Sequence to fold (258 residues):
Amino acid sequence: MFVLPIAGFAAGTIGALIGAGGGFIIVSLLLYVFPQDSPGLITTVSQSVVLLTSLSASTIYVREKRVNFRSSLNVAAGGIIGMALGAFTVEHLSRGYFQIICGMALFSLMIYLLINPLRKPKETQTISLSNKSTARKIWLFILGLSTGFMGGLLGIGGGIFIVPSLVQIFAFPAHIATATSQFVILITSPAAIAVHATAVPVTDYLLRILLLGLGAIIGAQVGARISKYFSAPWLIRSLALTVGFVGLQLMNRGISII
Fold:
């Protein structure tokens, strides 16, 4: 158990730094440390820690006025639905298939981001952050629905999909995207936790959540404070390499189980 606060700190720092919530680190750790746990239990613990991380990081991002509230609420509207559907789906997956799905999703994302780490649109193609068009709201809702489903399915909050999507598709500056992503996760994660709570005795694992969460809360403060000192390409490529490594590990372990 002593390793949990350390892992939480690492997940919180990296998660806040790149706007991903750190769930992919928590899920990977839990899959290794608790080989008998079901996918539903693992994602429940992870989502709970991700919620704490997002809460901690968002206090700084809101204070620094880096959150695009209008867009975040549009994304969160779809994300709540997607999170609930993803959480429901994972309750019916075997551990082996869960690990393979996680690994494939993360590795595919790595390849895409390494090839194209930042969107470089022409000036006429750039989507303004203040754009209030109905079409934009619909696409943000769809983004939330799809990334929320993946986040709920994998137990990772969805930030690893939200950040690159906001940067690549909507031309958000990377630092605004990471802050906005954390705020979205803060709103959507409770939906997945609520679904899991109907099948998993969450109270039986409060100690695990608290140990991970303590480290994550502190780490999120560190990550949020230092994130503005790193360049946008560094943030995106760091995200890509990290999730790619985790993806390979998860696929290998999943195949060995089936």
